[in-house]
Amino acid sequence: MRKTLTAIAAAVFAVAGFVAPASAEGEKFVLVSHAPDSDSWWNTIKNAIAVAGEQMKVSVEYRNPPTGDLADMARIVEQAAASKPDGIIVTIADYDVLSGPITEAVARGIPVVTINSGTLEQSKKLGALMHVGQPEFDAGFGAGERLGAAGAKKFLCVNHYITNPASVERCQGFAAALGVELGNQMIDAGQDPAEIQNKVAAYLQSNPDTNAILALGPTSAHPTLAALEQSGKAGNILFGTFDLSPEIAAGIKAGKIDFAIDQQPFLQGYLPVVFLTNLARYGVMPSNSVNSGPGFVTKDNIEMVEKLAGQYR
Amino acid sequence: MTDERIKQVSALRRAMIRPELGATAGTLLVFLFFLLIAGDSGMFAPEGIKNWTVVSAQFAIIAVGACLLMIAGEFDLSVGSMIGFAGIVIAILSVQWGLPVWVSILAAFAICLLLGWVNGMLVIKTGLPSFIVTLAFLYILRGLTIWLSVLTTRQTIIGGVKDVAQNDWLAFLFGGVVFKDLFVWLADIGLIEKFVAGTRAGQPVVEGVPMLVVWAVLLVAVGHVLLTRTKFGNWIFASGGDAQAARYVGVPVARVKVSMFMFSAFCACVFATCQVMEFGSAAADRGLLKEFEAIICVVIGGALLTGGYGSVIGAALGAIIFGVVQQGLFFSGAESSLFRVFLGTILILAVILNTYIRRMITGER
Q: Where are the transmembrane segments (chain B) (predicted)?
C-alpha cells in the first residue's frame, strides 16, 4: 500500500513539474485560436508568439479547442478572461458563438485584439482594439493588380471551397482589379485532385483566350499546375496562387507560377503581442487595424521563404 | 451466522466498497492540487468557478446517461454525433423552417429518443456488441448532420438561433440563468466583480446559475435515485451483471437496455439543446469525441467497463474531476498539449486506484 501511494505521489509531482508557469515576470497574454490540434498552419503563429514573448519579456499562452469545436473555444475565451490576463488575442472563427465571451472580456476591461478570421466590422462590433488579418477581397485585388500589369485580360479562378464566402471574395477582388465581371470565370472545382485537373483542362480548352489563372491554395494549385503541364501551357500562362507548399515553391522557382500570396501568419501572432505589451506599459496603440497580407512570394524572395517555410512563413 | 445477507458489515468496510470512493478521494486531491498551484490565478474567483462548473456540468449531463447504460452492460459511442445532430435539427427547424423554438426542441428530443430506441433494438435483436452498433451510428449521424446542414444552408454552421429563441419558454429552460437577483446582491456587497465597460457596465460578471448546471444536478439526482432506490435500478444492475441470470428471475432485460439507450440519447439531446441555446448557433462538428469523455468520467467514477457495477454519484464526481483538471491546467499556465498527458495519467491512476481498493476490500482476484 505504501509503495503504491509513493508511486502515485511521485507521478503527481512529475506532472506538477510540467505546469509551472512559463514566466513569472512581465505581462501575461493569451492567444485563443479555433484550430484543432491537427492543423499545422498554426505552428507558425505559435513560433511567432514565442519570438515576441522573448523579445518583449512577456508570457504568451496559446490555447485551442483540441477537436476544433467552436463551442469549446468559447469556453476557453471565457476561461482566458477569468484568469485576468493583460490582453487576449483571439480569432473570430464564428461571430455568433464568440460574440458573447469576447464582448464580456472587453466589458471586463481586458484589451482584446482579433486576428486571422473575421472582418474589420465584426472586430469593431465586438469592441476589439484592432484586427490583424488578411482582408480577402483586398488580397484578391492585389493579385489582380499584379497579373493585370503583366497583361492578364481573361482569367480563371479555381475555387476548391466554394461554400466558404471568403474564397469567393478573393475571386471577386481579382476580377475587380482587372475591371471585369467575375461571371463564369470562377469554377467550383471540388476537392478531388483528378476532378480539379480535368475541370481546369476542360475550361482552358473551351476558353482558349484565357491568359491568367488564380488558384486559392495548394488544393487547387497542384492539380491546376498538372493540367497546365499536360497541355504544355505551363510557363506560358500567368499563374498566381494563395498559400505556400513545397510544390508551389518549386513551381515559382521553375517560372511556372508567378507568385504565391502569403497572409503572413507570423505577423498575426507577433504584432498583437508587441502592440498589447506597449499598450500595457506605455498606453500606446496604433489606431487602425493591420493587414498582415497579402505578402507576395515570387522568384526574387523564394529562397528565404523556402528556408523559413513552416516555421516563420 | 448462516445467512450472509444479515451478516454485520462494519461502517468502514461499507464505505470502502462503494464504487465512488476512488472518485471522492480523487476529487479532493484534484481540488487540493489546484488550490496549491493555481489558487491565486482567478480559478477560484467567481468567474473562474463558474467556468469550470459549467464545463463539469456539461460532462456530467452526458456522463449520467453513459453511466446508467454502462451499468446495464452496454456502450453508446454515438453520443458525440448525437449532440451535433440534435443541434443541427433544432437550428434547421427553428431558423430555416421558421417553426417555434419550443416545437423544434421537442422534435429534436423525439428524434433522439427514437434513435436511442433504434440503437437499443438493433443491439437486442441482432445480438451484436453495442460497441459496433453505436460505432456505426457515430458515422451515420455525423454524416447525416453535415449533409443536412449543407443541404439546407450551404454551410456547416447555422446561426441566428438566439434571435428566434428570445422569449421562448422552453428555450429558457435550456439556455437561461436562474437566481439572477442573488448574484446582483452578491455583486452589490462586493463578493463578485462587475463589468467596468460596455453596455453591461455595472452588472455582475457572473449573471446567475446557468440552466445547464441545473440540468446536470437534476439528472444526477434522478439517475442516483433511479439506480439506488427503485426496483428498476436493481434491474439495471442485474441486466449488466449477468443478463441471462437476470432473465431467469424475471427481469425484462431487453426493455431495461433499450430504455437506457434512450436515456443516453436523451442526455445527449439535453447537452445539445443547452449548447445551441447558449451560443445561438449549431455546427456540424459539435460534440466530437464527447462519447469518450463521457465514458472517461464514468470510469474515473468507479464503474466497471464490463457492466453491473458503478454509481451515478461516482460518474458526477468523475465529471467534476475531468472539468476541473481541464480548466485548472489552463489557469495554472500549463502547455495546452500536455493537458491530455495529464488526463491520461489521471485516468490510469483512477482506474488503478479503484481496482486496487476494490480487490483489497472484496478479496476478489
A: none
Q: How far apart are CA B315 and CA B321, in angstroms?
A: 10
Q: Is B198's CB within 8 Å of A106's CB?
A: yes
Grid cell listed for A144: 489582380
The reply to whether residue B285 touches residue A69, judged by beta carbons under 8 angstroms, is yes
CB pairs under 8 A between A and B: 135
Task: Give A64's contacts in chain B (Cβ within 8 Å).
Answer: 336
Task: Nearest by CB to B333, from A61, A97, A127: name it.
Answer: A61
Element (H, E) at A91: strand A87-91
List phi, psi (to 5°) of A32.
-110, 120
Cβ–Cβ under 8 Å, residues B138 and B277: no
Q: Which chain A residues touch B281 with a CB distance below 8 Å?
A: 94, 96-97
Across B27-48, b (16+ Cβ under 10 Å) vs e yields: bebbeebbeebbeebbbbbbbb
Closest Cα in chain B, distance from residue A279 (Å)? 17
- The parent domain of residue B70 ranges over 23-354
Domain regions of chain A by residue span: 28-133+264-292, 136-262
CATH architecture of A136-262: 3-Layer(aba) Sandwich (3.40)
**Number of structural domains in chain B:** 1
User: CA of B280 to nearest chain A CA: how many angstroms apart?
Assistant: 6
Specify the CATH number of the domain A28-133+264-292.
Answer: 3.40.50.2300
Q: What is the DSSP string of B236-272?
A: HHHHHH-HHHHHHTT--HHHHHHHHHHHHHHHHHHHH
Considering only CB atoms, A62 lies closest to which of B154, B336, B341, namely B336
Chain A nearest C-alpha distance from B196 (Å): 5
pLDDT exceeds cutoff 90 at A140? yes
pLDDT, tens digit, 9 for 90 and up, residues B54-113: 999 999 999 999 999 999 999 999 999 999 999 999 999 999 999 999 999 999 999 999
pLDDT per residue over A57-104, tens digit each?
999 999 998 888 888 999 999 999 998 899 999 999 888 889 999 999
Answer whether A4 sits within 8 Å of B42, measured CB to CB. no
CB atoms closer than 10 angstroms to residue B188:
11
0.95 surpassed by complex ipTM: no
Instruction: Please report which confidence band the pLDDT of residue A161 belongs to, taking 50, 70 and 90 as the band edges.
Output: confident
Nearest-by-CA chain B residue for A102: B198
Residue B47: inside a domain, yes or no?
Answer: yes
Q: Which of chain B's residues have a Cβ under 8 Å away from the Cβ of A68?
A: 285, 288
Q: Is residue B33 part of a domain?
A: yes
Q: How far apart, in whole angstroms, are the C-alpha atoms of residue A216 and residue A140?
A: 9
Distance CA B205, CA B203 (A): 6
> Using the beta-carbon criterion (under 8 Å), do A18 and B356 form an inter-chain contact?
no
Closest C-alpha to A225, from A205, A191, A192, A250:
A250
Q: Is the pLDDT of residue B363 over 80?
A: no
A63 CB neighbours in chain B (<8 A) are 330, 336
